[in-house]
Every structure is written in C-alpha cells, then in structure tokens.
Design brief:
Elements lengths: L2 E4 L9 H16 L3 E4 L13 H11 L5 E2 L7 H13 L3 E4 L3 H6 L4 E2 L2 E2 L17 E4 L1 H8 L3 E4 L3 E4 L9 E3 L7 H11 L4 E5 L5 H11 L6 E5 L1 E3 L15 H6 L4 H9 L8 E3 L7
Parallel strand pairs: 1-2, 2-3, 11-12
Antiparallel strand pairs: 4-7, 5-6, 7-10, 8-9, 13-14
The structure holds glutamic acid (GLU) and zinc ion (ZN).
Pfam families: tRNA-synt_1c
Protein name: tRNA glutamyl-Q(34) synthetase GluQRS
Family: Belongs to the class-I aminoacyl-tRNA synthetase family.
C-alpha cells in the first residue's frame, strides 16, 4: 500500500507551494487507495511555533484534503537520541563546536544547500565547555555503506552521492536531531513508502539514503515534484510576496477551487511551475 506524507515545519504560515506539495502527496495516495499522513516537524529550535499546527490543519481542510495525523516530532526525541548514539558507537559522528561565522570565515565550497563544512573539527580534540553539534563523517559512512541507489518517480534511478553535502549536522546544538536525521527516522517509523516533497530537497535524499543504510531502515521511493516560482523566478517563500494559505482562507477564498486549479497546473497571477530548481535559492 502506498503511504505518503506532508511534513510541514511550524515556523511560518503555509503558502501556495505547500498547498501544491500537500495536494500532490494527498492525490498520489488517494489515487492508489493508500494513506496520506500529516506530520508536524516541530523541532526547529527557537523558530518553531507549535501553535501554528492548528492553522495548518485548518488550511488542509480548507483545501479539501483528508489525512491521518501521526505524532509530531517533538514527541519522538528519544528515538532520535537512540539513533544518534548508535551512529556514535559506529564511530561515524563527531562533535563540531564551530559557529556559522567561523565556518564562513574559512570561505568553504558551496553545495546544493549552503556551504560544505570543511571538516575543521574532524579528529580534533573537543572542548566540552563549548556547545557542540554532531556531524556525520560522510566519507567513513559511505565506506561502511558501500554503493547505494535510490529511485525517484520522476527522474528514475539515482546513485546516492552524499559527498556534495559534506559532513552534515545530524544532532543540532539546540535539538537532538537535524532535519535529515529526524525526517529519515520518522518516515521509517510512519511506514512511509513514497516520500513526496519539492525538487529543492532532491539532494537531501542522498543523505537520507545513506542514513537508511547505516541504521537498517526500510527504503521508500521518492517523488520530488516541481516547484512554484515567484514572478522573479525565485522559489515561493513564506517571507516573500505571495499571501499565506491562512490569509487566503480568512479572506473567504474558495480553497477547494484553488486546489483544483493547482491540480490542473493553473497558477495564480505570475506564479509558475518549474521542473528543476536551477538558479533557485
Ligand atoms: N519539514 C520539512 C520542510 O518543511 C519537510 C521536508 C520533507 O518533506 O522532507 O521543509
Ligand atoms: Zn567544527
């Protein structure tokens, strides 16, 4: 059975891009007689505003979607801690006390989502007085896991190459897991068989596939969908021009009609759908 999910982070209101993402995920499950899950990803440190979860539910209902809600990430911290401890035991995580400014001062290479950590703290003695994140030693992890492939429903088989991300953070200074670790563990725990999300997270899947291999997790398929772009060709963002779903709902717009338009690829004024996020920030 196909199980998909929509996994918003409550750090701002949802916008049209989220509506599109939720609809794609919902319809893929519905059309296959499967299940569509909602998971609130509320461990984003100080940026997280769990009270937004109610707004999200109202938005999805307004769009005419039906879902099953699974427990929010904040209730699953122990499972993240267990997985991180296992990776530490395998010798694959190391503490990193660098601040963002310190890393940027080294003028690191840029990857698909920001800089690639230059490995400053790898093998270095760690000052326990400083707050530390835990990073994955990607080269060591890849050696352990061997060559890995994953399947995207649109672009086909991919060979997992997480090196372009560098040694990613798996345990944050302010939370027991980063997005990569939490989402990968939760998708497995929730029995998700088809991970649907935007093309902007395509590269992250290389890391997730590696984590699945290291932690003996089941391997789903992925469906990375097109992105909605603003009039200036940028990915729609919560902070930019487009009104939030909540604004549209409260102003009396018909959400089911909007959902139908998005399904047909008819985007409201100036917004376009793009296959690949080239040049998208
Ligand atoms: N919480 C993540 C976000 O809102 C979910 C990404 C994903 O679907 O994996 O960007
Ligand atoms: Zn460091």
């Amino acid at each position: 059975m196909i199980v998909t999910r929509f996994a918003p982070s409550p750090n701002g209101s949802l916008h049209l891009g989220h509506a599109y993402s939720a609809i794609v995920s919902h319809d893929l499950a519905r059309d296959a007689g499967g299940r569509f899950l909602l998971r609130i990803e509320d461990i984003d440190g100080a940026r997280s505003r769990p009270e937004l979860a109610d707004e999200f539910r109202a938005d999805l209902e307004w769009l005419g979607l039906e879902w099953e809600e699974v427990p929010a990430q904040s209730t699953r911290l122990a499972s993240y801690e267990r997985a991180a401890a296992r990776l530490v035991e395998m010798g694959l995580l190391y503490p990193c006390t660098c601040t963002r400014a310190e890393i940027e001062a080294l003028e690191p290479r840029m990857g698909p989502q920001g800089f690639i950590y230059p490995g400053t703290c790898k093998g270095r003695n760690w000052d326990p007085d400083k707050p530390a994140a835990m990073r994955l030693d990607v080269m060591a992890a890849m050696e352990k896991a061997g060559s890995l492939v994953w399947e995207d429903a649109i672009t086909g088989e991919q060979s997992a190459d997480p090196r372009e991300f560098g040694d990613v953070v798996l345990v944050r200074k302010d939370a027991p897991a980063s997005y990569h670790l939490a989402a990968t563990l939760d998708d497995a725990a929730d029995g998700v068989t088809l991970v649907t999300r935007g093309m902007d997270l395509f590269h992250a899947t290389h890391i997730h596939r590696l984590l699945q291999a290291l932690l003996d997790l089941p391997v789903p398929r992925w469906h990375h969908h097109d992105l909605l772009l603003d009039t200036d060709g940028q990915k729609l963002a919560k902070r930019r021009s487009s009104p939030s779903l909540a604004d549209r709902r409260i102003s009396g717009e018909d959400g089911k009609e909007l959902a139908e338009m998005l399904r047909m690829g008819q985007m409201p004024g100036g917004i376009s759908l793009s296959r690949y996020p080239h040049g998208v920030t």
